[in-house]
Every structure is written in structure tokens, then in C-alpha cells.
Amino acid sequence: MKKIIGALFVFTLVVSCESESKLTYDTLHLTGENCASCPNIAINVPEVLDESSVAKAINRSLQEEIISILSFSEDESIDNVDKAIASFTESYKELKAKFPEETVWEAKIDGEVVYEDMNLITIQLKAYSFTGGAHGYASTSFLNFDKGQGAELENWELFSDEAGFTKFAETKFRIQEKIPQDKNINATGFMFEGDAFHLAQNIGYNQDGIQLIYNQYEVASYADGPIVLILPYNEINLYLKRKVKS
């Protein structure tokens, strides 16, 4: 009986610790002006309510990403989301005044927490913007955060052996995309710079493994769409600084 009680206590403690390690989120909903000469703007991203350093880092990084997507200039005075929305709106109004037939601009940004454990958080951002031309541009990006450091991580900081991970990822990429292992990486029509495989700019944790997303134009044409590669944790943990139980 004592063993059972002990086991239940340990289980309860683990569940409690895991629950306490989770941050508290709300959803930040933002839209632009509602008028005939205004662009369509819709932003829905997580907002962390905690006061921890990692919470502040997440909210700050999300704001910076939104500003980057909406801004057309390097104007340093655009230092918050409201100013970025206003800048995007004003740019469209100025163009619309000169070219009344200009198609309505659009910007949509959706974010969600796709992975969280006691050490790390990954937020996925899906963005779509149309500012004239033949078509809009859609992209997916990841923001990875270390809870202990309270900071956003660069891609290289995810790995204990980046070179080994890159080599493994190339092998899996070739298998998935049916590129012979002994042929040039661009042999079947890809457009890797310098004819050499490289990791995607956007890398993030999710429930299935490490996800690499090559957005349109990164290694293939617009028509090919995004290229997605997911590598299970049980195959890549040896390359990661932050291991994940699989």
C-alpha cells in the first residue's frame, strides 16, 4: 500500500510540475481601420500574461515580427504594432489615391504555440500579405524560446552538433524529395544556393519532431509552394541541445 501511495505522490508531483511550468496565454486580436479605402488587416497571435523574463521575450519578439511583416521601410519610429498597422494603412491609401483601380491590400498573421515543455517554447507564425502584383506571399516562421535563459534562440543554438544534424537532414530531404544520394542536390530542380544543401531558415519544435519549412522561393519556385521536412525526435535527439522524450 505504501508503494502505491508513493507512486501516486510522484505522479501527482510530476503532473503538478509540468502544469506549473506552462505559461498562461491569451489571444491578441488586432485589426486595421474599417473603411472603403483601407487595407484588410487581421492579426491573431498569442500574448503571454505571465511576468517572467521569457514571457516578456515572447511578447517582444512577436511584436517585432508583426512590425517586420507590416513595415515597408526601416523607419525606426515604428516601434509598436499600432504604428506598423498605421504605416501599412497609410502606404496603401497613398497608392490608392494615385491609382484608384489598385486592388485592396491584405495582411493576415496567425500565431500559435505548437510546442511547450519545461525548458522550451516554440511559436509558429503564419503570415499572408498582398500588396499588389500577380499574387500575395505566404510564409511560415518559428520563434523558439529557452525558458531558463528567458530569451529567443537562434537556430544554431538548438543544436549540440549542427553539422551532424545538417548531414542527417540532407539525407532525409533527399529521400523525401526523391533526389539520388549521389547526385547534385539541385539535380531534380531545386534551387539551393551554391548547389549545396542547407538547413531551412525556419526551424521549430512540434509534437512530432523538429520541423524545417522552406518557404516559397527559398529553395524552389513559387509554384512549388513551401517544402516541409519533419524529423522525429528519436532519430535526432543526439544532435539537439534540448532533448525531447519520444
Please describe what this structure looks like.
Helices cover 30% and strands 27% of the residues. It is of the alpha+beta class and 246 residues long. It has 2 domains: 23-153, Heat Shock Protein 90 (2-Layer Sandwich); 154-246, Heat-shock cognate protein, ATPase (Actin, Chain A, domain 4). The strands form 2 sheets. The chain has a 6-stranded mixed beta sheet with strand order 1-2-3-4-5-6, covered by helices on one side. Helix 2 packs parallel to helix 3. The longest helix is centred in the first third of the chain and has 20 residues, at 2-21. The radius of gyration is 22 Å and the shape is flat. The two termini are 31 Å apart.
Keyphrases for this structure?
single chain; 246 residues; alpha+beta; Heat Shock Protein 90; Actin, Chain A, domain 4; 2 domains; 6-stranded mixed beta sheet; 3-stranded antiparallel beta sheet; 30% helix; flat
Total strands: the figure is: 9
- Going by CATH, the architecture of the largest domain would be 2-Layer Sandwich
- Net shape: flat
What is the succession of H and E elements? HEEHHEEEEHEEEH
Q: What is the CATH topology classification name of the largest domain?
A: Heat Shock Protein 90
Q: Report how far apart the termini are.
A: 31 Å
**What is the CATH H-level superfamily of the largest domain?**
Fervidobacterium nodosum Rt17-B1 like
Proportion of residues in helical segments: 25-40%
Counted up, domains total: 2
In what range is the share of β-strand residues?
25-35%
CATH top level class name of the largest domain: Alpha Beta
Structural class: alpha+beta
Rounded to an integer, what's the Rg over CA atoms?
Answer: 22 Å
The total count of helices amounts to 5
